[in-house]
Amino acid sequence: MESYTVSGELSIYTASNEKQSLLAFLQSADELEVNLSQVSEFDTAGLQVLIVLKQAAIQHQKTLHYVMHSKAVLDVLEMTNMTGIFGDQVVLT
Q1: CB atoms < 10 A from the CB of 93, how many?
Q2: CB burial class (10 A; 0-12, 13-18, 19+) of residue 36?
Q3: What are the φ/ψ torsions at residue 27 (nearest 5 degrees)?
Q4: Cα–Cα distance between 11 and 40 in angstroms, integer?
Q5: Residue range 18-49, pLDDT digits in tens
Q6: How far apart are the C-alpha atoms of 80 and 75, rounded to whole Å?
Q7: Mind listing the pLDDT tens digit for each residue in 52-87?
Q8: Phi, psi (5° rounding) for residue 82?
């Protein structure tokens, strides 16, 4: 399993660049995980990137998991009622 860690902001200011990096990472293996523990700021643009990446993984028949969600990520997922949408285990502390 290949792993990729998103660090810093995943927001409107960084979404475009991070999306390109994540889509390139998607080509690296059939089973992938994206570690979100280092995401310091997260907004709906970041959420859109995660949705697009999950859809691309499904389209290319790859397994993609989001793991280690930071508080910033969890706050937006909870606010948008999307915590369970991705099908990944979320550990609340």
Answers
A1: 4
A2: buried
A3: -80, -5
A4: 10
A5: 999 999 999 999 999 999 999 999 999 999 99
A6: 9
A7: 999 999 999 999 999 999 999 999 999 999 887 777
A8: -115, 15
Q: What is the largest CA-CA distance in the chain?
A: 33
Tokens of 20: 């390109």
Q: How many other CB atoms are there within 10 angstroms of residue 33's CB atom?
A: 18
Chain centre distance of CA 31: 14
* Amino acid identity at 77: L
Q: What is the DSSP string of 11-46?
A: STTTHHHHHHHHHHHHTT-SEEEEEEEEEEEE-HHH
Which of helix, strand or coil describes residue 83?
coil
Give the length of the chain: 93
Domain-embedded: residue 33 = yes
Total number of domains constituting the chain:
1
Flag whether 28 is in a domain: yes
Q: Which domain holds residue 17?
A: 2-79
